Amino acid sequence: MASALALVPFPTMVALLCMWFGISLPLVYLGYYFGFRKQPYDNPVRTNQIPRQIPEQRWYMNRFVGILMAGILPFGAMFIELFFIFSAIWENQFYYLFGFLFLVFIILVVSCSQISIVMVYFQLCAEDYRWWWRNFLVSGGSAFYVLVYAIFYFVNKLDIVEFIPSLLYFGYTALMVLSFWLLTGTIGFYAAYMFVRKIYAAVKID
To answer: Would I find Transport among this entry's keywords (predicted)?
Structure first.
């Protein structure tokens, strides 16, 4: 009886299929069309085909140290809001501060952009030009702190002892952390890319 009540009603399933084929699928092909017609990015200066030798870097320029340092500020900007989000998802509490959530998201975008620009500036000053993937990883470093907080929340706030609920919690948490890492990494990368284009466009080559 319980399994029969848990089934999705047929009209709901039809509505979801209509939304998928009527909204999601056309948007995929629309994005493909505009992405295929978009012109590639034009770099402001010519790239040297012979790679330069990178000098020995200091300890704080290590990739993992940069991830730990750069992730603190964006995580601190959203720490309090993250508690209410977890409480709404896992403890069935009502969440109604969507305006404040949007403000926190704006602060998160600004902090990720600023941290990313600062880190790529230090990296370029150290004559290390391999900033693309490093910057993506570093700007997404706050996802590591989100994962640590999710483990802390599971141990101290939830009374889950069985295997299947624990697997469900950490499965959804892994998806959330991965999505958050891709989001913050993309924000930081585009901010650093615009910064690098701006400073190299100002370089006068004789």
So the answer is: no
Whole-model pTM? 0.77
Distance in angstroms (rounded) separating the CA atoms of residues 113 and 42: 22
Q: Quick check: 189 and 135 in contact, CB under 8 A?
A: yes
| DSSP-derived secondary structure letter, 61 | G
135 confidence band (pLDDT: 50, 70, 90): confident
Give the pLDDT score at 89. 83
Q: Do the Cβ atoms of 147 and 178 come closer than 8 Å? A: no
Instruction: Of 111, 114, 133, 134, give the one whose Cα is nearest residue 62.
Output: 134
Tally of CA atoms within 13 A in the half-sphere of 82 that contains its CB: 22
Residue 2 tokens, joined: 């319980």
Backbone angles phi, psi at 160, to 5 degrees: -105, 120
Residue whose entry in the numeric block shows the structure tokens 């704080």: 60
The predicted-structure confidence for 149-168, as pLDDT tens digits, reads as follows: 999 988 888 888 888 888 98
Task: Say if CB 192 and CB 135 are below 8 A apart.
Answer: yes
The tally of CA atoms less than 13 A away on the side-chain side of residue 191 is 25
Q: Which residue has the tokens 């959804």?
A: 172
Residue 204 in this model has a pLDDT that exceeds 70: no
